Amino acid sequence: MKKPTCSPQGDSAQNQSALPIKTGAEIIVDTLIEQGVDTMFGYLGGVVLPLFDKLYDAPINFIIPRHEQGGAHMADGYARASGKVGCVVATSGPGACNLVTGIANAMMDSVPIVCLTGQVRTDLIGNDAFQEADTTGITRPITKHNVIVKDVKELQQSIREAFYIAKTGRPGPVLIDIPVDVEVAKCQMTPFDGVNLAGYKPQAKGHHRQIKMAAEAINKSERPVLYVGGGVITANASDELRALAQKANVPVTTTLLGLGAYDQMRPESLDMLGMHGTAYANYAVQECDLLIAVGARFDDRVTGKLKTFAPSARFIHIDIDPASISKNVNVQIPVVGDAKYILGEMTKEVQHKDRKAWFDKIADWKKCFPLKYDTKSPNIKPQYVIEQLWEATKDNAIIVTGVGQHQMWTSQFYKHSRPRHFITSGGLGTMGFGLPAAIGAQAAKPDALVIDIDGDSSFNMTMGEICTAVQYELPVKVCIINNGYMGMVRQWQELFYGKRYSKSSLKNPEFAAVAEAFGAVGMTVDKKSEVKSAIAKMLKEKKPCVVDFKVEREENVWPMVAMGKSLHEMDGLDIFESMA
Question: Which of 10, 335, 353, 476 falls 20 to 30 Å from 76 in CA-CA distance?
Fold first, then answer.
């Protein structure tokens, strides 16, 4: 590909001389503003000081985390809540390395963020200079694209391409590594004339013949199921999904990241499927004759044992990423393109069909296998806390989670009706994601109620970011489901390792006291009778607030499909029956 020049080809010498000459740092800031960046996250360091000096007067809201990993998760949460590209900055060496977990998380969950990292001078690269790391080499497997810019003339175009690549096709993180001498070198700015990458042409409109074939398959099906992933939310296709499901009369189940793509209060909703999904969703998938996957990738937490997954079904797979199709299952009707366009076109072709027998069977499963827990227990059950949060907010909140048991209970007992109101780490399963992602979401939606439902071990990893929330007056609410364990690890140790709880219990601080020390509001709840009032008090607070719920220590997440088992082989259903 031909390298960009400093000014557009064909301009007269007079026009070229009229273009402003700026430093690389000024070019970075001006190009970020040109790309619509209004909020950034990042941490200072020696080789990014020229950039931070130019950010001093920039009309960009800049939030400094307490750790670069937190900054990456903040950019991630910002992107998911807003639908825009998140942006994070870090210095060279350890600063860039500390972004790695956040970048990998964004890559796995297809979140558009642009990471700007500083680098040592170009003449020092490869010499083991102070705070040098091969940032592009380290992050190549976990970015959609990355580049080191060694010539200031290429800087502006590289940033423009980064934002374009991050947000188009299947979104993902893009990293630009910028040596400090490039930040201080000078070059003429060029006017923005769009981005045209010869080797990168994402397919948005699906092939009409494939769309028609998919619609015909739905019309003929007696027992179809829509299996919906986070791609529907990314594509802003929730309205089109609803129109298709209701016109064709098809039940809908979602992945963890797909929660909110379809209103869970509607009768055709099956809620979440998979390892800790509902029994009725898993049974419906196993007995369907047509599975319509939209913006999902058939990952192992959804399918269980692949050889026995949806054994009677034909597969339709709608995805903007052609590499995802037939990657894990053999698909009979692939449709490559943007979910919003394809679902809209399919809706024109599908017909309404009664499917009474199918919905009656699903209704029986729902009646026999509802999600349950021991409501009569005198102890605080984690499910009870989440139910009370739902009752108090009625989906008028952006819910963010860490990773672990609390994440699964939240996916089961907090019902969602709108996209971009549930933010969690899916593919990478990143503990510590919850609080910084909630801060990013709050920065994106300053007037929204943002609640981080977190586990004690997950919260421990990044709780220093409470300082960030306090400093920038971001009133995030944190509800800690505190069982004194790495809960999901402990559950597996109970079920598969003879209750040998090896190293899965950690001594926690008094989280409420820590929150108060940081300048936030802190509360501790250890009685069931105090749960509702504590939630009500938390919701009235205008400051960041941490509520430590001391819950039943050895509660498990049910149902559960153990590793290597088929989707219909769920453990825990007998426990539900005993509660009837």
Answer: 335
